[in-house]
Each structure stands twice: as structure tokens, then as C-alpha cells.
Amino acid sequence: MDTNEYGRLARSAAVRGDWIEALALWDAVMEQDPASPIGLLGKGEALLDMGELAKAEAVFAEVMDRFPSHVWAAANNARVAVLRQDWQEALQRWQSVRDKFPHDPVGYLGCGEVLRDLGELGQAEVVFADAMKQFPEQVWAAANHAVIATRRQDWQEALQRWQNVRDRFPHEPMGYIGYGEALRDIGRIDEAERTFSEAEQRFPDNDLAAINLARIASRRGERVEAIRRWEAAKARFPFNALIFIGLAEAFTGFEQFGAADEVLAQAVESFPANESVWIAYARVAMQQRHWDAALRRWDLLLQRFPQHRIGYSGKAEALLQAGQFDAAKVTLEEALRLFPEENSLMESLGELAGIRERRRAAQEWWHHARHWFAVHTVPYTGDLAELNRLCAALLASPNYEARLLEELIRLEAQERPELQAALFERVLARKPIWHFWIFHRLARNYETLGREAASFLVASAALQIERAMPAAEALFRAKFEYLRHHQLYKEAIAVFREAIDDAPEQPIAEPDEVRELANAAGIFLDKTFLTSPSCRCVRVIEAETRPAWSCPVYGPSLPRDLVTLVEAEERKPIDVVLFEDAELLICNGATVVIDSIGMTVTDLSVAEYPALVRQKVERLLRSGAADEISADVVIEINDGFPTPNYCHFLLDQITRLELYRRVGVDPSGALVVCPVLGASFQHEIAARLGMVNCVDVNRVVRVKARELWVSSNCREVQHPAHVGASWAIDFLRCSFGAVASGSDGKIYLSRSDAIGRRIHNEEEVARELERRGFVTIVPGRMSFTAQVAAVANASHIVSVHGAALTNAIFAQPNCAVLEMFHPLYGTISYTALAQAAHWRYAALTARDWQFDTPEYNNPDFRAPMRGFGQRDIFVNLNLLQRWLDDAGC
């Protein structure tokens, strides 16, 4: 068998996704003809398609060394850097190709495309214009030159350039396609459709014309016509995987999931080596909530593409939804070993623990409550036929919780509490329920019926959801609130004392609540020391007021928690306090300051009840269950928020280093008390700021210090960055050297790698943004330094509410920032930063991705944030386009 036949078989094996066979055949080519670069290049390209970037890079380096005159070895080496999104390296490699092979257009095109994707449109335009002069016969040079005008939204120039491509290259479809897409993008849909129809007639073998015609019908919402066009395109071009995906998306857009599933099943058979097809196939199972099928499909993807990051995150999400938390954890840990720079994986692991605990609590509560209500049932004496009918309808619905809530609201309006209770208990006996508003309403309902124990039970479930409380703690809190509401103050205090005895670091009530009840009940509480005579206090930040302001809101009103963004807010003064020969007690996130005379310093301890935490630590020290360490100088940046949250760590905890520096303390020479440094971004930031000696708060330990320095905002934290204080933002900008170059960069920060709070229709959102000149980056896949560099030149930033938006503080002054929210979830983290960071800030309220019902979309329901923090959103493109127009994009 000759080398050509081996090469043909190798390419065929790659199409099938049989990578072992493909690599073996390319090895055979190399063995048979070692003097040719063909075998090595084929092997490198196969490794590239497998996602084995490091191995592919090594192969291409060997080809470049052995065959230095071969342009495609150098070009493929540049492609590796592009696929890594290492843009500066990619640019250097393409420039090297261009310099070494000045008579080949590939170097010019690669260099220009990287500059274009970085948002450097001016430089890219120069490269493509040069390519047009050097290679006037190359349609790709002229087409890319036209793309630049399209990206700039200089529509008159874009149409003129695309027309020029049509005139110079009348036998090439590219000019017609580009011209039609420009017409489509400026809303001249009918003209665009005619252009694509002409292209289809002139170039019947070109699939892009058929694809664009189908997309136009989908965009118009013409369901029958869109599906007809996609199916016609599929019949004519059965070898284009994008058409199969487009047809499936059309079916899912019209909620025809079975048809979409069938199309993608055909696609994976026809295109087993196409990773996009496998991803779409797995995601359509996810959309149908068929978790077992989704898991099988993610596994098949990973078998064919062993190092595919989306495969791991998709599989972890399916395992999570299926309740297989241990397997989800193993999957994320395996992915983290393969992709150690993927900060999003560490954050997903952190989120996984909370989700797992809530799901476990929900299951435990359901099993307990189902048994409890079976024993303590109260026979329903009303119309049993009505009860049976309502119950049957609810149990038959896949969205039975939302339907149950609707029925409870209706029955409450009719003042039928007995039927409310009976319907809830009937459904609970058959199906798990874990819905804040159901429990919230039922707690009041059972109280009305005089069923006190049932009221406690459902109220505790509501508290578990709203406050993420453990079950026992939530039950104590439910009793506490009930007794306080009924003015049984002594009994409420007794419940509080019973609850706090075992876990003082997790109190069920705040000190002000307890003091108020104690005063009302005439109970004397031990005096709490709020100051220490043996300390030196330095005021480093004076009090000031963040002025009231407002921002444009696109869409329905913001989540209720964000209404305060228009109000003035007081920034408290910040003191740094020195204690000599002192102790800091650490207990599972809480810290307690003990001065040199043994006094518990409450107002600088990160604990609600420091005296009780102290008792627990000292008890554990006596039993040998706690550690003890000593240090010369100790500083604390902890504030009780231990999880690896990028925003909180950078804006609140790290900025405290500046406060200590202002009083002459060098963090590099101190023991830093901080949260667990688990994520790679935390290690990178800590190293750059000289945090070389740290002790985390996720343990029980006594720290003895010759000098203990504590900032007052450890306890009185005002998130974020002391409510957007200029000193904190200036410190971060100076520390990490984000210098703007003046280029017009537009950045979309994608959460596609996150477990939740993603954009359900991200593909069309990204397409619209890219049409307006935006570059999509996924910060969770990047190092901290790379994230800062990516936004340093940004003039416009778009992001869903999430930690990645923290990076906007490193952008250019006057940067336009659009933050997109779920209608029932959000915090003021970035609205608070907008004034000091000098952003042109706006908010966009999206819709819940799955339900249109009020409990998932209406802020007037006052739903708790915890229930909606990880829900995906659906972005209204008209609202997005309106902001883009207003922002000058």
C-alpha cells in the first residue's frame, strides 16, 4: 500500500473519530516515506482535532525543525496558539509565518484574523489591505477586508466592499454571502433574502446560501418555513454538520425536542469526529431533562475527545441534575487535573458542595416530612372528588411544583385552608417538594388551622432554602420566629440558647434580635466588651457617603435586591487596630480576638457570639482537638466568606492588604489569616502581593502573636470594595498594572463553562455581539493575569451577573458596561463599583430560561435569591440591540 492510500485511510479514520487507527496510519506514512513531511503533518492535525494541543505542538515543532521550508508546519503551529486563546503568542507565530513565507498568503490571513478577533480592527485592516495588494487574485484577502467594515458597523463601506468582492470575483460565492449577511444585519431582511436566493441559484453547490436562507426563516419565527428550508438544505448537503445542528436548533426553538433528538442522532452517525455535533446531541437530552441519556452522550463525547473541557463540565452538570453528586465531584476534579488553569472548574467545585448540601437537605426533608404527615394526617372532610381531580392533574404535570403553587394561591384567595393543606399533603406523599413559596404559604396556612407542629416543619424548610441553614438549625429558627411572633419571649430565648450551645459559630439569631427579646422578657444578658484598653487604633479611611444615582434599565424592573442601587449609602470609617501579645482564635470560618489581658474583643471578631466561640475553641484545645501556632506579626484579611469567590476575594479581602500597608505593615513579612487558597487565581494573586505565609480559617487553631493587626472592616465588611470605594479600586489597578492602550476593544465575558447562570440562547447573543465587533472570552478558562490583560483595553463589556465582571475594574475609564440579570436574582456588587470605576453602567433584565410563570420572573413575588442564583436566563435580543445602539456599538 502506498503513502497516498495510507493517507486516505487515515483521513477516513479521523472522520469516523477512530483516532487510534488514524494515528497508526499516519505513523505508517512516516515509516514508509520518512523524507516527506506528509505523515508528520497528518499526525499533528489529527492530534489537533483530538484536542491534544501539547502533543500536536510537539509534532509541528519537529516538522518545522526537519522541514523548515514547509509553510503548513509553521501555520499549524500558529493554529495551536489560536486554539489555546493565547492571542499574543498566536500573533507572534503568524507574524513569523508571514516574515518567513512572504509569498504565501496564509501568514497574512492568519495574522489579520488574530488581530480582528482581538478587536484590533485598524491593524487587521492594514494587514488585509496589504494582502490584497500582494495577492490580488486571492478572494480571501478581499473578503476579510470587507469583514472589517462589517465588524465596525460601517454599513455603507461594508456593502461597498462586499459589492467589490462580487464584482472582482463573480464566480466566487463569498461576495454574495457577505453582502447578504450585511443586509441582514442592518435589518434589510427582504433584500438579504433575495441576495441569498441569487447566490443559491448561481452557486447551487454552496451550502452557505442555503444555511442563511434557513436562518432568515428561523429569525422571522416562521416555524414551518424554517424547518422546510433546513430540511431541504440537509437533503442537498448531507455532509455539512452545521446544517444538522441548525435544523435541530430550529426544532428545539419550537419545542419539538423529539425531532431535534432524531436529527442529532443521525448527525453523530454521519459526523462522529465533529465535536459540535456531540455537544448538541448531549445538550438536547439535557433540555428534555433526560439525565441518563445525557450522561451516555457526554461519555461518548469524552471517549472520542478525551481532553474536551466542555465534555467534562457538561457531564458534571448532568450528574448534578441526576443527583449523583459524588460522581459530579470526581468528574470536576478529573477535569481540574487536566485543565489546572480553568478557574471556573474550581468555582464549580465550590458551588457543587452547596448545591449538593441543598439537594441532600431537600431529599432528607421530603422523606422525613412524608413520614411525619402520614402519621399526623388530618382527614379532609370536604369534596374528595375535587381533591382527587386536583391531585391527579398536578401529579401528571412535569412542572408539578409550579402548578401546585398556582393552586395554593387560588385556594388561598378562596379562603379554603383545609383544601390547601390536604392538596399539599397528597402531592408530598408522591413527589418531592422543595419550593420556598409553597412552604412559605403553607406555614401561615397551618398556623391558621392551629397545626403548630406542621407549621414549624414547613417553615423550617423555607428557612433551609432562603438562608441555606442546616435542617436542625432551621427548625430551631422556625420555632424562634414563631414564639417571637406570638410574644412568647422567654420561650424564644430558651430555644435560642438550646440551639447555640453546640454551634456558636452558626447562630440562629443575630445579637440585636436576642437583645431585643431579652429586654422585652426582662432577662439579664452578660455584658459584652466592645472595646479593649490594651490596643492602639489608627483611622486609615474616613467615613463618606456614596451618592445616590440611577442607571438605565433595559427590560422589566430589576430584582428587588437591586432597587437600593439608586439610594445613597454610608461608607463606614475603617480603623486598623494593633494588639500586642494577643491571640486570634480560629474556628471554621469564625475568628475571635483576645487581647493581652484576656479580654474577648467583640467588635473586631468575625463571629456573632465571640464569647461562645472562644469557649468552644478552648474546650477543643484542652482535649487536644485544636492546634496552636505562634508568629511575630499577624494580619487578618478574613471576613467569614471562605469560598473561592473571585469577586469577594479580590475586592474585599485582598484590598485589606492596602489598609495594613498604610500603617507600615509589610504583608510579605507577616502571617496572613485568610480564607482557604484553593483556586489557582487565589494562589496567583497572593504570590504577586507577597502573601508567602498564610493560615486559613477553615480549621480550629489558636494563633499567638507578638503583634496582631486587625482591620475593622473584617467584621463590618461592606461588599464590594467597601461599597465601591476609590481607594480599593485604585489599589487593585496599581497592584496589577492594567494599562490601557487606547484601542477600541469590545469584550463579551461568557459563563459558558459555569454550572449555572448561563445564557440559554448564548449562540445568538454572541453572534449579535460579534457582529457589533465584540470578542468573546471565557474568563474561567484563563489565568488571573490573562483575564486582566484581556480587559485592559476594553471600551465596552457585556456579561451576565457573575464574578468575571470584577475584571471590568481593569478596563478603560468611561467603559460601557452591561450587566444582565435573572429577574429574581442579583446583587449590587457591580452597580456599587460603577461610580468609582467610572463606568457607563446599564442593566438588562432577562427572563427565566425555562418558565414564564410569575414565581420565576416577577420581582413582586419577593422570592429569595438562593432559589434562583444558578438558574439560566433567556436574553431578549431586542433589548440587547437597544443597549448596543445606545452605547454606540
Structural features, described:
It contains 40 helices and 18 strands. The strands form four sheets. Strands 1, 5, 6, 7, 8, 9, 10 and 11 form an eight-stranded mixed sheet that branches. Strands 3-16-15-14-12-13 form a six-stranded parallel sheet. The radius of gyration is 31 Å and the shape is globular. Helix 27 (471-485) packs antiparallel against helix 28. It has 889 residues and is of the alpha/beta class. Helix content is 57%, strand content 11%.
| Span between termini | 58 Å
Average pLDDT, rounded to a whole number, is 85
Poorly predicted runs of 5 or more residues: 526-531, 739-743
Strand content: 5-15%
What integer value in Å does the Rg equal? 31 Å
Fold blueprint:
Elements: H1 3-16, H2 19-32, H3 38-50, H4 53-66, H5 71-84, H6 87-100, H7 105-117, H8 121-134, H9 139-152, H10 155-168, H11 174-185, H12 189-202, H13 207-220, H14 223-236, H15 241-253, H16 257-270, H17 275-287, H18 291-304, H19 309-321, H20 325-338, H21 343-375, H22 384-395, H23 400-413, H24 417-430, H25 436-448, H26 452-467, H27 471-485, H28 489-500, H29 511-521, E1 535-541, E2 544-546, E3 553-554, E4 569-571, E5 574-587, E6 590-594, E7 600-606, H30 610-622, E8 627-636, H31 646-653, H32 656-662, E9 671-674, H33 680-688, E10 694-696, E11 700-711, H34 721-724, H35 726-736, E12 745-749, H36 762-771, E13 774-777, H37 784-791, E14 794-800, E15 816-821, H38 829-837, E16 840-845, E17 847-848, H39 854-857, E18 873-874, H40 877-886
Parallel strand pairs: 3-16, 8-9, 8-11, 9-10, 12-13, 12-14, 14-15, 15-16
Antiparallel strand pairs: 1-5, 2-4, 5-6, 5-11, 6-7, 17-18
Helix pairs in contact: 1-2, 1-3, 2-3, 3-4, 3-5, 4-5, 5-6, 5-7, 6-7, 7-8, 7-9, 8-9, 9-10, 9-11, 10-11, 11-12, 12-13, 13-14, 13-15, 14-15, 15-16, 15-17, 16-17, 17-18, 17-19, 18-19, 19-20, 20-21, 21-26, 22-24, 23-24, 23-25, 24-25, 25-26, 26-27, 27-28, 28-29, 36-40
